[in-house]
Amino acid sequence: MTGLGGADAPHRFVETEKDERCSHRTRWRPRDTAWVTGVALLPVLLLVVSVPAALIEDNRGTLIGDVLGTWNLVGIFGLVVFVPVVTVSLFGAGALAQQFRFGRLLASIGSVAMALVVAATVIGAVADVVGPPQRRDPNSWSVPLSPFATALFVIPYLVIAVLNVYVVIRLWRRTG
Question: Is the pTM value of this prediction over 0.70?
Fold first, then answer.
């Protein structure tokens, strides 16, 4: 029997409903929310991990202590920028399930903004090393980093930038 009361009618309805909710090409997937949330919180996670590590290192004047101190300095003062950008991304992640296009837009704005902020941080750190030597303020809060220490310093920020670009590509690969 095929028709409104046929045996296969409910089956087709369930398949259609399932396809509309879980289509990998056109709609939200639960992993989208997890990716946006996880990547958005990475700068805060870096700060949360680096503060106790710097306390354990106890500013012994080692290379890793200098890197940890610089992560803390950038992380604490960067919260002024990181918190609003993370908030936009998290609002976008929360909206993905109900309003995919709006959530995708917000999450993308937050991810692009974070990628630009951390890219500027990386460029600034590298410019300090490769640029001409400058007279440093004797009361400066940060220590001058060696080229190797600068490389260690920028690695997490490069990872954050790449992952934010990945999130944007992941969200816009599908039609809304």
Answer: yes
Task: Name the residue range of residue 168's domain.
Answer: 28-131+140-172
Domain count, the chain: 1
Name the phi and psi angles at 143, rounded to 5: -95, 150
Buried b / exposed e across 140-174, counting CB within 10 Å, b at 16+? Answer: eeebebeeebbebbbebbeebbebbbebbebbeeb
Higher pLDDT, 26 or 155: 155
Secondary structure class of 96 (helix, strand, coil) = coil
The CA dihedral of 33, 80, 56, 63, to the nearest 10 degrees, is 100
Q: Residue 176's pLDDT is what?
A: 56
For the cut 70, the answer to whether the pLDDT of residue 25 exceeds it is no
* Cα–Cα distance measured from residue 117 to residue 154, given in angstroms and rounded to the nearest whole number: 13
